[in-house]
Design a protein that fits this description.
Layout (H helix, E strand, L loop, with lengths): L1 E5 L9 H9 L14 H14 L4 H8 L8 H11 L1 E9 H10 L4 E9 L5 E5 L5 H11 L3 E6 L5 H6 L2 E5 L3 H6 L5 E2 L2 H11 L1
Helix pairs in contact: 3-5, 4-9
Length: 199
């Protein structure tokens, strides 16, 4: 039995932190997992930047509320779900993900959690488990699933390489150059066809 595991940001929805950076006029927030492979380091940087500039959870979620899925993402998900199980594996957070899942017709999302104080200030983050995407892929495989994975960033490479089939989607030139053996696609039709061929 197959299960398709997809990254969220950059694959199905715009990058939350880039949208936030644009809204508040601070390009420092544009750093993402496409740029920084160490996710813990990246989140500590983001949280420190939020707190230094007086931004809380509501400031970020207000931006998320205005984010729409990427054009074609919903139709792509619908096509996949007709053929196989689909799981969204993301390093985002419950507090960010739920509004986006509503807009994508509630696919299953495995993600992490933010630590937020009574004043609404983000004080930390809790990862679901170490190497959460790879760990989840291995757990699914231990249950008898063949996994197919797709993502765009450094933190997707482990799950892509551990799967029966794995693909880069709308990734950076650097990541594609560093991983020339991984098929890379730019359109949902091409990615869907590659996934269907792997089933």
């Amino acid at each position: 039995m197959f299960i398709a595991c997809l990254d969220l940001e950059g694959v199905l929805v715009p990058e939350i932190w880039i949208e936030f950076a644009n809204k508040v006029g601070m390009p420092e927030f544009k750093l993402t997992t496409r740029d920084e492979p160490d996710y813990d380091k990246l989140m500590r940087y983001r949280i420190d930047l939020l707190n230094k500039n007086g931004f809380g959870l509501k400031d970020v979620t207000d931006v998320i509320a205005r984010i729409a899925p990427l054009i074609g993402a919903q139709e792509f998900l619908d096509r996949l779900r007709e053929k196989t199980q689909v799981l969204i594996l993301s390093d985002t957070f419950d507090q960010f993900g739920r509004p986006l899942m509503r807009k994508l017709n509630w696919p299953t999302l495995f993600c992490n959690s933010l630590v937020v104080d009574e004043a609404g200030r983000i004080t930390g983050h809790k990862m679901r488990c170490p190497h959460s995407k790879l760990t989840t892929i291995k757990a699914l495989q231990s249950c008898g699933f063949d996994t197919i994975a797709a993502g765009d960033s450094y933190n997707d490479l482990e799950m892509i390489r551990a799967s029966k089939a794995g693909f880069l989607f709308r990734s950076t030139a650097q990541i594609k150059a560093d991983n020339p053996d991984l098929p890379a696609f730019e359109t949902y039709d091409d990615l869907a066809n590659a996934i269907f061929d792997a089933l």
